[in-house]
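Try it yourself: sequence plus nicotinamide-adenine-dinucleotide, in.
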Amino acid sequence: MAHNSPLRDALLSGTWLVTGGCGFIGSEFIRQALRTLPNVRIVNVDALSYAASPERLATVASDSRYKFFKANIAHPAEVQAAFEACGANGPTAVINFAAESHVDRSLFTGVPFVLANTVGVQVLLEESRKYVGKGFARFVQVSTDEVYGDVAAPHRSVETDPIHTSSPYSASKAGGELLVQAFIRSFNFPAVITRCSNNYGPWHWPEKMIPLFITNLLAGKKVPVYGDGQQRRDWIHVEDHASGILAALLKGKDGEIYNFDGEIEIDNLALTKKLLALAGRDESFIQYVKDRPGHDRRYALDSAKAQRELGWHQKWTLDAGLKQTFEWFVANKSWLDKVLNAEYQAYYKQQYEVR
Ligand SMILES: NC(=O)c1ccc[n+]([C@@H]2O[C@H](COP(=O)([O-])OP(=O)(O)OC[C@H]3O[C@@H](n4cnc5c(N)ncnc54)[C@H](O)[C@@H]3O)[C@@H](O)[C@H]2O)c1
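Structure, out:
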């Protein structure tokens, strides 16, 4: 946007430190940025947790504008080295995707969540601040609609709504956000925060609902629906989320929060039926299981601000996106077979077989 053009010019020819780039959303962001912005360089900083898959970046791995740096964002010395890998002046921008991202795992133990999602943000902020004045232009904290907690219909959460978290995951993400806001207030630190609804799309790790259900259906297994299946979510295709973060980075205003959603609110049971239809299975493939403790009934976002101020808009409809995602999983069964490893099987057993 015109009011930000010197910043935009700096960003468009800069080096971006992207954390968690081997994850589901970070990898889409990196692929999209390198495909659409010819002069941007990216250093991907990832600890390679269980949810990382470097294969998601196979199409950019040999691009001279791309570099991988293994580091844990909660470790100051590793983060310092990662910033130095961006060159003498450090990165022009930090886009923080790195996180422990699965709510169910946070209910087993929240410690890794607080370390990655809260402590890790503080470490990144402190390191970034050292580079302000040397060309560091913007920090983007990628956050979630889960910080708003349950939302009663017909309200859709707006950026000024209070934070009201329900799980160790959402509480740790809220902690990260609050630290970013503290830096904005205390140091005039150049940062924006994005909050997005549930993502889906190709390369999604099969512990999350949509890829889990596709994986089970492809294997001829039932799908585990939590409780009464009436929890409502606002699904967004991962490509639309990544384009939103790019817009917030390039066109957003310092200190602001931007919501991104798919404008498709649907309950879990109705979504399950869409996936059953894609797989050619009937409702006998539904297995109702005990609900998640503290499970929020409804999330719904209003992303009018991002549409108005960033010129962003969702491109995918849910039906087209689910079909594309289902077909991607069928065509990429070898990736799926690889990630359905012993760690995944142990998690699945702990999560579902005792429910
Ligand atoms: N998936 C969603 O529906 C959704 C919705 C809204 C917001 N978000 C947010 O988007 C971001 C990305 O989510 P995702 O679904 O791609 O997650 P993901 O679990 O697929 O990937 C997370 C990545 O971060 C890395 N990572 C984890 N801890 C790290 C650490 N301490 N240091 C460095 N790297 C670390 C992992 O190795 C992995 O590659 C997260 O911050 C998440 O909270 C996700």
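One thing you can check immediately is this: The first helix runs from residue 5 to 12.
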